[in-house]
Amino acid sequence: MSTPPASTARQLDPASVQAWLRRQAHAPEAPWLHAEVARRMADRLSFIRVQPQVVLDWWAFGGGSTELLLKAYPQARHLAVEPTEALQAHGEQKRATPWWSPRRWRGTTVETVAPEAVAPASVQLLWANMMLHAVVDPARLVAQWQRLLAADGFVMFSCLGPGSLRALNEIYARMGWGAPLADFVDMHDLGDMLVQAGFADPVMDQEVLTLSWDSAEALLKELRTLGANASPQRYAGLRTPRWRQRLLAELESLARPDGRIYLDFEIAYGHAFKAAPRAPLAAETRVSVDDMRAMVRTRPPKA
């Protein structure tokens, strides 16, 4: 996957995102937060009546949703898209079905495909868990999803929202350290992107998940698995060991009476359907006199 241009509406440093994706390609599994959000999003599938024939999981390995989607739709064809070649190889290895697995005999395996190999209007469910906040141009990607979906197919996604890690932002602002992370897109703006891309009946909502750690070191270790500081306004030079100790001290100052450090993550959820194309309206509409009289007769009397 080629690196998107940096000169887009959203301020995001693609090189930092690519560095995070390289680390993810060596991770044993998806981050815990991603897997938890995937579980919560999968609970919503019970409200969807459409039974997809083809399920496309966008950035599948990092989303941690493979088993959930296979369980929800065992009869569907499952496709996976990864953002880099390294993650594609890593994901294929992790998703490989052992010879003794019942999935192998039922045929419920996952095929890894390139985005350009997916035929337009061929997918009934496009699933994207916890990845849209790492995209330079989410509006362009949402439009691509719309093209891949069949009529009456639907998209479901989740991502980080602007309410995430506010305490960390406050520390960096108070200490004059620049930005600790890139700005996240508001869920209402994501809903507008769905409408502009041609989706019907978009539904957006959000919740706040609070994670806690027993030390600042553990906190930083987990944050590193969740992403990189992709803000173009971040500090440009290398940090020193002395600066790191100051950061750890500031984080430790957030500890509550139980000794644990708590940070909030805003999770935005969205889903929308691709409406069936409407027949074009004629430039001229003819109504007979008899039809007009019938319409007048059927008007309800005035109150």
From TrEMBL:
It comes from the Bacteria. Residues 62-157 form the Methyltransferase type domain. Pfam families: Methyltransf_11 (PF08241). Keywords: Methyltransferase, Transferase. This is Biotin synthase. It comes from Piscinibacter gummiphilus.
